[in-house]
């Protein structure tokens, strides 16, 4: 990284543990929303280069569904939740009861389905940030999430503009959502891009400098 602060495997392990606690909270909320059992976990948290981040999402030109929000309060930064269109379609179709809903066909995406996807992003990001806030004691507020269906590079480039001056890496939080009913999973990625001073704030608060 270009900053004076280096993230170690220990830091990533701490973030993974926080992520799993956030995932458990999100699973509870999704189970209530969908009226069926949902499990979530974070199989991996990694620090990767920008190029590797794009590859994880299928390449910079791969079209995905992305949720973007800013982090405010004692921390600042950007957070993206990116998942394949087919995974987003499967989830939203079950949620709104519309088998024709398709993010890749704009004419078929009604306001209810789009709002449902934004709510999913709100639940997931809110659960992770709430867990991070509980662990650190910091006041952390997510902005209202915005939804985009576009190439990965186009969705994420906004968040990279500021952080690229200080860093060439991003924290990736893999997320797996499993419906017990059919054992199918929705796999997505959180890309966490704290503004440079916030790295130190996070780990000082966690006592793992």
TrEMBL record:
The lineage of its organism: Bacteria, Bacillati, Bacillota, Bacilli, Bacillales. It comes from the Bacteria. SUPFAM superfamilies: CheC-like. The keyword rRNA processing does not apply. Transmembrane segments: none annotated. It comes from Sporosarcina gallistercoris. This is Chemotaxis protein CheC. The keyword Hydrolase applies. Residues 10-45, 115-148 form the CheC-like protein domain. Keywords: Chemotaxis, Hydrolase. InterPro entries: CheC, CheC-like_sf, CheZ_family_phosphatases.
